[in-house]
Amino acid sequence: MSGNTFGKSFTVTTFGESHGPALGCIVDGCPPGLELTVEDLQGELDRRRPGTSRHTTQRQEPDTVRILSGVFEGKTTGTPIGLLIENVDQKSKDYGKIKDQFRPAHADYTYQHKYGIRDHRGGGRSSARETAMRVAAGAIARKYLQERLGIRIFGGLTALGPIEIQPVDWEAAKTNPFFCPDPSRLQELEDYMDALRKEGNSIGARITVIAEGVPPGLGEPVFDRLDADLAHGLMSINAVKGVEIGAGFASVGQKGTEHRDEMSPEGFRSNQAGGVLGGISSGQPIIASIALKPTSSLRLPGQSIDKEGNACEVITTGRHDPCVGIRATPIAEAMLALVLMDHWLRHRAQNADVVPGTPDIGRGSTWRP
Amino acid sequence: MSGNTFGKSFTVTTFGESHGPALGCIVDGCPPGLELTVEDLQGELDRRRPGTSRHTTQRQEPDTVRILSGVFEGKTTGTPIGLLIENVDQKSKDYGKIKDQFRPAHADYTYQHKYGIRDHRGGGRSSARETAMRVAAGAIARKYLQERLGIRIFGGLTALGPIEIQPVDWEAAKTNPFFCPDPSRLQELEDYMDALRKEGNSIGARITVIAEGVPPGLGEPVFDRLDADLAHGLMSINAVKGVEIGAGFASVGQKGTEHRDEMSPEGFRSNQAGGVLGGISSGQPIIASIALKPTSSLRLPGQSIDKEGNACEVITTGRHDPCVGIRATPIAEAMLALVLMDHWLRHRAQNADVVPGTPDIGRGSTWRP
Amino acid sequence: MSGNTFGKSFTVTTFGESHGPALGCIVDGCPPGLELTVEDLQGELDRRRPGTSRHTTQRQEPDTVRILSGVFEGKTTGTPIGLLIENVDQKSKDYGKIKDQFRPAHADYTYQHKYGIRDHRGGGRSSARETAMRVAAGAIARKYLQERLGIRIFGGLTALGPIEIQPVDWEAAKTNPFFCPDPSRLQELEDYMDALRKEGNSIGARITVIAEGVPPGLGEPVFDRLDADLAHGLMSINAVKGVEIGAGFASVGQKGTEHRDEMSPEGFRSNQAGGVLGGISSGQPIIASIALKPTSSLRLPGQSIDKEGNACEVITTGRHDPCVGIRATPIAEAMLALVLMDHWLRHRAQNADVVPGTPDIGRGSTWRP
Amino acid sequence: MSGNTFGKSFTVTTFGESHGPALGCIVDGCPPGLELTVEDLQGELDRRRPGTSRHTTQRQEPDTVRILSGVFEGKTTGTPIGLLIENVDQKSKDYGKIKDQFRPAHADYTYQHKYGIRDHRGGGRSSARETAMRVAAGAIARKYLQERLGIRIFGGLTALGPIEIQPVDWEAAKTNPFFCPDPSRLQELEDYMDALRKEGNSIGARITVIAEGVPPGLGEPVFDRLDADLAHGLMSINAVKGVEIGAGFASVGQKGTEHRDEMSPEGFRSNQAGGVLGGISSGQPIIASIALKPTSSLRLPGQSIDKEGNACEVITTGRHDPCVGIRATPIAEAMLALVLMDHWLRHRAQNADVVPGTPDIGRGSTWRP
């Protein structure tokens, strides 16, 4: 009932508030024997960490993670893996007004309705800070998928407000602070963000994530299709308002002859499906895109109400990302890794007996723009 | 692990293949005391039923449903509700070729990989025929939500291929075979479909569904947010490739000042959020849209491979919907009902003690285009 | 939330009331490729069926089961298996009094409290008739376990009231109506039951079930230990009031040197543990015993209250088992099969990568009294 | 799949090894608004803590717990509660032999089979040290049940080896180190334990736990009956080999007229059922007993094998409880609290609409020996 667990076979349960003492999670179901060190997790956490450029929040959190269980002599043991990150930069500022006001488009109003009480400091549980634990847990999944199955997960920014980006170099996306897969567009992005910050406004973004090398067969129809669970995972990221698989909303305007990915002994001829047919991976790259709304924390005043229902004006000062999409790539990659890992375990639970023999035409294929 | 159950508190588990003896489901967790008759279910099933116009498959299935348990003297008893629909129009045609070929963009290839065996007749388990049980189960949820909470669920076609439809009359969507919320566009739709059928091709569509009167507080952060579970449910419908909540992908291009729904004592000033903030319902209408791909069953030949990996050409004759989106509205409405019902029960499990007191500014609001 | 599903990887969801139109279940997660016919299920159902001797209820139910999905050309396909048994012998007798009275030690009172409504006919959902579906589903698990893993499941009556039975021949338990593993005691059992029936009373019983050939490694500590899930499954059978694994309550009086099963290269030297160490199967036979209370449906009058809280006297006429334990062996075996099957799938989900190498000293061992 | 979560609505997920850096858990689903401090948890932890008498292990662990999330300004917020206990007394002794040997009746052998790797230090994950987190989590449930529903949970030792104890004073059980509900037997217990320790042996025990004031209606038939979930929870405690509800195994020898609890307007006339009818609480006290096996860690040598399958002799030195049953009362109480809490939430999810009206004759009743 409680909604803080993701996955069924490979599960991640998180806890922690933005300004509480710590964030943590328990990863349960990890296969034993995987080599795992703190560095494996820290590397991914550092990618998500704020403060790496002037375009993200200036909150300083080292996000130093500890592994508290489930690893012995450098290897996973099959028992639950406890992870912990202590919060260090919770500013003891005056939250007086925010405490009694509902910031527009934030979760203040709905948490108050649901629970009758809320930790208002920095958004409490609804803060995107919670996603640090997803990234840490996702790093475990990612390592397993890479080492045991050869699955490569990557992604980047494919739109920032009005700026559409055609991916040309996914490797480049790993080395710039925008996670932009076209390095020629970086100056444009910087300029846009500088103007936006001056304006005091925020902007939406689109992120695309990809998994190459996924074996065919992952996904549990009819409800827990791979794409359905991926939609669940991706939509559960803070600020996400839309999820697409493959052609996504473009398929509304497609004819059957355009959309259907024809097959040949040499492979699929296209990948409109985004690597999923009937809810099951086809062996082609899994491709998913998400829409992230603009941050609602603005220094431009917004109309709202307080807890008593009186009108008020809200101005959000403090440290905020003007485009939450910029740091979202590692989070979306982590959710993709968690979904694939969970489905790999679920798949082999039922189907480990299946004798291979069906031609595997999709596996070698790589992402095509 | 097994993926044929939807929901956690109000669960639906379905079974059945397109050409097997029957389809069925078990609805578990329904509150006792709800008046329920077969007619309540049959009405919704008839909306989804094929053969109501020349624009859908000509397979004739009365979809007559039986209630086998969980209802006593006209009321639900709190015990599981077993539902059954016998298949009557499975044509005993020759499936020879289809048996050994993989139809492009169908689940043939992936089911074969996953299970090593598949019921090829009419797509077997991967057929959209399975959604009949979702509609039947959804009708129970819908009745409860309407009677006990005053929630109204409706929806319709908002795009068919290149034809964009601005909803002007959701009531009208209930009375035309396209579920089109603008009756002035019906002739255009008919003409488009007639031309398409002549061409032998198929087309994608977009469906929008709405729930009005949803109380604030539904949704379980951080993973089982209302929008995340809705994305899960909607993406699990056959042919769906994208899901949007509220502004959806339009939010990529929005600034914070555009997207954030300001609040006043009289209500929210807009509904870009689609009724969900921080994964919890705000009391505003829930608005979700889905993209449905064009049917892959075409009489225009497509290139593929057979089970041995040899190239082959596939032509799909038989009875198929040229636009699966046309009949998808009742299915999407059913999934929305199931998600809301499940979350209502989950919410009150944890929060039945909460003393109301927060101003409820969203509840009375109705859908605005 | 809803409690009508058993298992996590291999799940069984049942529905149906004693006097409703039908009983049914959905088995989800069955591996594909298992040969399965109606006869496989019917054989087990016939063992549980009433009316096979004068010592059980005289209700005549053929319990004819239909497979509605999930099996194609004689093999499971990996999709959910729908099973259905129509009720045929619901007597349309006058339930007038029972309708408004709470029979002592029955679920009438608690169902009324919980749901505010109940199907009083024959106990409704609380009738042991529901266990027919467990036996049907268990037969699928059993077949898989036998064919793929060589696991043999059997059991029988080890006490009927004051009559203690030392198992000497488990094969014999399969061929007598008491499921008694010592054929020399049959006359004694018959005489006891004849006297009891004349008296109008009922009696408790103990059943012991065993699984031989279980591989080491099944069970998921710390909460879903094999013995804990077995206790869950066995305690969920109607009338069960106690569950023991191995030495069970005898271990209260044992010293460590008596209880600990010493090991040698040739095998374990005893099996006080009942085949489970730390919640994980050891390879030795799994041994579990259950206590079943005497039937509460008696023609000897009992004091009770009616729905208005008035005192009343209840006499239960009609058709009832004077010792529900007699027919419980196939049910307990079915639950054991379901638990093992579920844990086999769960185990291999996480641990399919584990390289064998640990000496397997328990596997070949057989049950020792 | 993973087995480290207990409960469905009120869930507890634990992590941690005996000699790792820390133990922890996440409690998810706790209703908001409950006053909660570290002291509420610490009090229960201190009851379970070793070293309070010479009859338990001499390992010194303060078991100081921290609340890391889910509590704000002294009240629960409805978000997940993270708890942490750092291990402080892990002796860095030489584990050389134990590392390669399988201690008889321990989980060494089965963990090695299951995972192919194990943390051998102090039993790793299979150590009863894990139960500290159950006690901490149970304290939260207990507080809610007591404050909101008036449920009182208590228990004690009802047998230690050959010494049978008739409970005469449950309050006394709270104040002596044996949790013995008959203070006149304390000297006898001390003497028995002193002799046992001298002998180098260990002994089994029986614990009985009771919940008074439980409202009627808790339990989810047919599989998640209250007694079935209680059996699951209790059997998942280390060393437990049997679970009884009410009359338990004594019901094997009972006649129907003895076992059935007759009812009158003034109340139930007995409580053979142990407060559960048809898997649902009746309002009478819930009574459950468990059998705990003798500790297997003995300084008396035992025969075993090593990882290569060679015969060896095992002597367990170190710090161990000669009777694990002595400290088991707080653990069993915690599991009872967790089960009741979970079922309270599950019950009201489905049945919050039910209009009361059925006479409640059991609620006021207290435990009777």
UniProtKB/TrEMBL annotation, chains A, B, C, D:
Reduced FMN (FMNH(2)). It catalyses: 5-O-(1-carboxyvinyl)-3-phosphoshikimate = chorismate + phosphate. One of its GO terms (molecular function) is FMN binding. FMN binds at residues 125-127, 238-239, 278, 293-297, 319. Coiled coil: none annotated. The keyword Amino-acid biosynthesis applies. It holds the Pfam family Chorismate_synt. NADP(+) binds at residues 48, 54. Its cofactor is FMNH2. One of its GO terms (biological process) is aromatic amino acid family biosynthetic process. GO terms for cellular component: cytosol. Its EC number is 4.2.3.5. It comes from the Bacteria. Keywords: Amino-acid biosynthesis, Aromatic amino acid biosynthesis, FAD, Flavoprotein, FMN, Lyase, NADP. CDD domains: Chorismate_synthase (cd07304). Pathway: Metabolic intermediate biosynthesis; chorismate biosynthesis; chorismate from D-erythrose 4-phosphate and phosphoenolpyruvate: step 7/7. The keyword Flavoprotein applies. This reaction introduces a second double bond into the aromatic ring system. Belongs to the chorismate synthase family. Homotetramer. This is Chorismate synthase. It comes from Hydrocarboniclastica marina. The gene is aroC.
